[in-house]
Target: Hydroxyacid dehydrogenase
Amino acid sequence: MNPFRIGYVGFVPHPAFLETCAEDPRLEIVRVPLEMPLEEQIALLATCDGYYVMAARDELPLPLHVHRELLAKLPRLLMAASYGAGYDPLDPEACTEAGVILVNQSGGNARGVAEHAVGMMLACLKRMPDAHAAMKAGQARDRAALMGRELSGRTVGLVGCGHVGTLVSRMLRDAFGCKILATDPALNEAALAERGARKVDLPTLLAESDVVSLHCPLTRETRGMIGAAQFAAMKPGAVFVTTARGSIHDEAALLAALESGHIASAGLDVWEVEPPPVDHPLLHHPAVIASQHTAGVTHESRANITRIAALAFSDLAAGRLPPRIVNPEVLPRFRKRLAEEMGLTPGV
Model:
């Protein structure tokens, strides 16, 4: 049997991907250099059965995003797997039309992201960004002017309660005694109760939460979901945190809400453009703590997400359907392709 060829562009997030792939003799790895001319990059990818795709959209050149135009040039492709839980550079509908399964690494970096979100909540409530800015400016003489609030006993609203949201809910409930509200269209009241949260609609969550934290994917439905009206609907003095994806919240609307004082502070790990320009006003606002999409960038998370991605490719090379398929509607056509093109019949 011919090897199952997996192409990736530039780099892999952690050596564990290559190490795990090397344990499976059915897999062959093809590195596509970032500096290679585009036509040559696509030609290399066209020889591959799998494409391991950067999950951060601004790291990967747009012509190498998995959209209809690229898929038309990769007729051999059977599976595209994102580097992480997010899959911004991949179009699920286009993958389905092409008979390609799209896999993410949902849950693989959940603990790292959850810890980051809780850390940002603490930093915002304790006014660490304000204190840091005041100290740098030589204006930190009155400590009472930097009086903060404690996280314990607060109401926290989670927009999305998947792997990350569930861990955040448990950390806040168990360690801080927080009351957790959540909105998630994929989970009913009982499922959210098992995760320690009360199911509410978005308007209720915004009106009742001391802290609003985003944990949902960027989709057509969530793009621009948190704008001026939503920030205005939050409690005066609320804290806003996002470790989800840029473009879910409106950055200009958030800046206006911070400038007015309606939103007290914000913790931002994700941006419309990553990295944001150095003169971005949110980077310089004294009530903002910022990071560069690094919530899940830990040694532990990177090793985990790359290992499970490699195992997903191994599953497919062996004729097994991998877990974490984002577009399950593709399966009838995909099974036919797998049988016709590789002589394999998935066991699931």
In short: Residues 207 and 234 are 5 Å apart (CA to CA). The first helix runs from residue 15 to 22. The first strand starts at residue 4 and ends at 9.
